């Protein structure tokens, strides 16, 4: 166990059709052939892990100009980060008592537009940026080829960055912090299993966007374009469940508001 603190860095909220988050959330039936769709929102946040080995920033959130042309219009229409400009990375870090200059390491769970939009703050620095090999390849591929995924913005990550590429399924870079390769949502999602003095924490990132993707009663896949591979997603989910059981871990899903508040309360 390691003595470390986790701070929730608020970055606003993304609004989208719930069918994108939970496969088949609203379905047509014979009695209701045209069901009313539901739009919901979820938190966008980063984590600041003050660890004996250094200060680690977990993701860098959306670019503050997401709604002002930084995101392609069709993507912003589908995933509206309506308050991104109110939560720029530097101001949000200051709200928890840190500055960008205090960050020693960045962990990019993946490079989607609501997770990688603050990487520009680390361009031209020697701050290591951890990312999985499969994610880095897929992100670049997706921005130049129609067979890739839509939710990447090249300008988010195509900087002079000190990439530190993760290759294995499980890798320990920092004391009692394991990086976990969780393909499914994207090819290279990284989760974190943190053995902390407070308690063991399992950060799923967007392998489980919300609790309905994770909970035993549901285990509903992400919908549509948010799911790169359902077979990979199910294997990653089984692994997470096993880790939760083995270590009695506090599970935190990627955009679940209740999970975020539970994590915040654990370290208050």
Question: What labels would you give this structure?
Answer:
alpha/beta, Metallo-beta-lactamase, Chain A, six-stranded mixed sheet, five-stranded mixed sheet, 11 strands, 25% helix
Task: Kindly describe this structure.
The chain is α/β, with parallel strands linked by helices and 268 residues long. It has a single domain, classed as Ribonuclease Z/Hydroxyacylglutathione hydrolase-like (Metallo-beta-lactamase, Chain A). A 6-stranded mixed sheet has the order 1-2-3-4-5-6. It has a 5-stranded mixed sheet with strand order 7-8-9-10-11, with helices on both faces. A hairpin with a 4-residue loop joins strand 9 and strand 10. The two termini are 19 Å apart.
TL;DR?
The protein is α/β, with parallel strands linked by helices and 268 residues long.
């Amino acid at each position: 166990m390691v003595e470390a603190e986790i701070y929730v860095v608020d970055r606003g909220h993304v609004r989208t059709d719930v069918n994108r988050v939970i496969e088949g959330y609203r379905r047509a039936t014979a009695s209701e052939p045209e069901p009313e769709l539901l739009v919901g929102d979820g938190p966008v946040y980063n984590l600041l892990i003050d660890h004996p080995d250094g200060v680690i920033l977990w993701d860098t959130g959306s670019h503050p100009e997401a709604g002002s042309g930084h995101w392609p219009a069709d993507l912003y229409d589908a995933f509206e980060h309506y308050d991104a400009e109110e939560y720029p990375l530097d101001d949000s870090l200051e709200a928890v008592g840190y500055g960008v200059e205090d960050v020693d390491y960045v962990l990019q769970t993946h490079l989607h537009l609501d997770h990688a939009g603050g990487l520009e703050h680390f361009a031209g620095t020697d701050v290591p940026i951890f990312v999985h090999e499969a994610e880095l390849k897929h992100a670049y591929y997706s921005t130049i080829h129609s067979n890739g995924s839509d939710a990447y913005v090249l300008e988010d990550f195509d900087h002079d960055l000190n990439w530190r590429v993760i290759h294995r399924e499980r890798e320990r870079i920092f004391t009692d912090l394991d990086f976990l390769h969780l393909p499914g949502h994207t090819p290279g999602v990284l989760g974190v299993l943190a053995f902390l003095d407070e308690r063991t924490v399992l950060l799923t990132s967007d392998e489980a966007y919300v609790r309905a993707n994770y909970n035993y009663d549901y285990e509903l896949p992400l919908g549509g374009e948010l799911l790169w591979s359902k077979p990979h997603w199910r294997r990653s989910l089984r692994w997470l469940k096993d880790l939760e059981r083995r270590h009695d871990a506090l599970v935190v899903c990627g955009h679940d508001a209740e999970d975020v508040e539970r994590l915040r309360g654990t370290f208050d």
